Amino acid sequence: MTPKSPDAPLDLAMRRSIEAWLARCTSVAAVEIKEAHALVSKPEREVWRCRFRAEGGASVVALTIFKPGDLETVNTSLPPAAASRLCALAMQELPDLGVPTPRLLGQAAFEDKAAFACEWVEPIAWEPPARLEAARILARIHTLDEANLSSELQGLVRISDPRMHRTTGGLAPPIPRTTLVHGDYFSKNLLPTPDGLRVIDWETFGRGDPMWDLGFLVGADRDIPEDEVESTLSEYARRAPVDRTVLNWHRERWSSFWMARRGDDRGSKGNPTSD
User: Are 49 and 101 in contact (CB under 8 A)?
Assistant: First the structure.
């Protein structure tokens, strides 16, 4: 089934497919879609904002569906069922460890596809203090003891490749140490709310270079003021070590990327290398 573009009307077959996935993920037998908008619509992954009615009343959720795809076109290194399970377990376990995420509603696999559903988080405007909070959360991720994760999540983390070459081209300096990393940690995946940030898109959660991860936060958004970068790094450094040599390599990589895209008119937010 071909995913619809974000503005295309929802046909009956797509509606039934989304309803089936929501029923599987939430264990609710009767789900009726009232509204659905495609936020990501690619052959290997779909993300939907869905308003639906079920036995307990109306709800608004985010539904992510993973499908088989070419490794060159996806962020995750895992097949659909494992990628979905990785995201679901991360969202289930990390909030208790000090890493806020949207509330998981459920996860399911069917044939060669898989999906998870979580509460819909309506973000407020991104302001510079959000990056400071993001630095504190990232330091928390990088200092987590893997032993505090469930054995199933530990196993998925160990086989998950965050795929650093997406931004480094395989040219990154040697990694002095590895930690747990998010793998796509920039504003698009950090949702500000009145109650603080919520971190989304855990499909690249694994072990990797924490300075690469930190490089996303201070480089993957275009034209971050240098004083904001420095305050962000200071906030992170209060909780986890910063290797300036390695970090500066990643910052230069992002600077070169943005210099090459000066003619792009898509605005200052967002990293075109990621979904």
Answer: no
Which pLDDT tens digit goes with each residue over 195-253? Answer: 999 999 999 999 999 999 999 999 999 889 999 999 999 999 999 999 999 999 999 99
Question: What is the Cα–Cα distance from 250 to 68, expressed in whole angstroms?
Answer: 30
Q: Determine the 3-state secondary structure of 47 from DSSP.
A: strand
Please report the domains of the chain, with CATH numbers, ordered by start residue. Answer: 12-119 (3.30.200.20), 128-260 (3.90.1200.10)
C-beta neighbour count of 46 within 10 angstroms? 24
- Cβ-based neighbour number of residue 240 at 10 Å: 17
- Token digits for 77? 């290194």
Q: What is the pLDDT of residue 57?
A: 67
SS3 helix, strand, coil % of the chain, rounded to 5? 40, 20, 40
Report the pLDDT value the prediction gives residue 72, as an integer from 0 to 100.
63
Contacts for 4-13: CB closer than 8 Å, 24+ residues apart: 4/38, 4/41, 5/38, 5/41, 6/37, 6/38, 6/39, 6/41, 8/38, 10/36
Q: What is the pLDDT of residues 140-178, one digit of tens each?
A: 999 999 999 999 999 999 999 998 888 898 899 999 899
Strands of 113-119's sheet in order across: 32-42, 45-54, 57-66, 113-119, 104-110
Q: Which residues contact 122 (CB under 8 A, 6 or more apart)?
A: 193
